[in-house]
Design a protein that fits this description.
By secondary structure, this protein is of the alpha+beta class. It has seven helices and five strands, in the order H-E-H-H-E-H-E-E-E-H-H-H. It has a five-stranded mixed β-sheet with strand order 1-2-5-4-3. The radius of gyration is 19 Å and the shape is globular.
């Protein structure tokens, strides 16, 4: 299979969506209002991971692009849980893609303890052969959920998906602790935001003074 050719439109989609989603944060900054987006990352799924997922799920090679929905993946990381739902409202209003599936793993966490909000979108890219509509996944999560998921992903990789029972239990506890941290931070959200505003203003003054 010519993976470079197959993945080229997905690379284009990830590049375009990274720019578009990052601009959303920049727009809040111009308006000096709280951005529900902290940062945005994206990646094209590595070929080895596509093949492993296809094998694990019994997907034939000719069905890969229809059935593996995260070949193009974007991640939006937020400060507060409420921001995730604010981002969702913004994404629903957009005209450049269609949301075809929503999975709320915050209201209903996964067995591992994993929390995040996922959407699958249909996104059109313009290629030299015309328009191609492809699937992409957007994961929306808080900084605390991201911290947990990143660590769990590494541990999962280390144990090839067979995490020992005791570590699994501790990871679930850590997921709950991360969620409590999110709840605590939400309850002092106004304090945090006021402090950030003061800090930003001061940074702006210092910057002007030093010019
Ligand atoms: N770290 C971590 N990430 C997860 C976990 N569950 C899901 N994810 C992430 O979310 C993506 C989509 O997960 P699901 O919505 O469960 O998708 P799925 O295709 O039904 O199942 P997967 O085989 O897990 O991809 C995965 O590719 C991971 O990036 C988890 O338990 N831990
Ligand atoms: N939607 C996404 N946006 C940005 N990064 C992602 C996204 N999904 C996964 N990643 C990251 O891409 C890297 C490679 O992930 P890979 O696709 O192999 O993992 P996975 O999505 O957890 O696996 P699988 O779907 O096969 O269970 C990891 O660092 C993972 O955190």
């Amino acid at each position: 299979m010519n993976w470079e050719a197959i993945l080229a439109p997905y690379t284009q989609a990830v590049d375009e969506l990274k720019v578009k989603l990052r601009r959303m944060r920049a727009q809040y900054e111009y308006e000096s209002s709280h951005s529900p987006i902290e940062f945005v990352t994206g990646r094209v799924k590595p070929v080895s991971s596509i093949l492993e997922k296809a094998r694990r799920k019994g997907i034939s090679m000719d069905r890969i692009e229809d059935e593996i929905q995260d070949i193009a993946g974007l991640r939006i990381v937020c400060q507060f849980v409420d921001d995730i739902y604010a981002v969702m409202e913004l994404l629903k209003r957009r005209n450049d893609f269609e949301i075809i599936e929503e999975k709320d793993y915050i209201a209903e966490k996964k067995e591992s303890g994993y929390r995040s909000y996922h959407i699958i979108i249909k996104y059109p890219v313009e290629t030299i052969h015309g328009e191609k509509i492809l699937l992409a996944e957007i994961q929306i999560r808080t900084l605390a959920m991201n911290f947990w998921a990143t660590n769990e992903h590494s541990i999962n990789y280390k144990y090839s998906g067979q995490i020992p029972v005791d570590i699994k239990r501790r990871l679930k506890r850590a997921a709950e602790a991360a969620f409590r941290l999110d709840e605590e931070m939400s309850s002092i959200r106004n304090e945090v935001q006021e402090a950030q505003k003061i800090f930003k203003k001061k940074q702006g003054q210092d910057h002007r003074k030093n010019r």
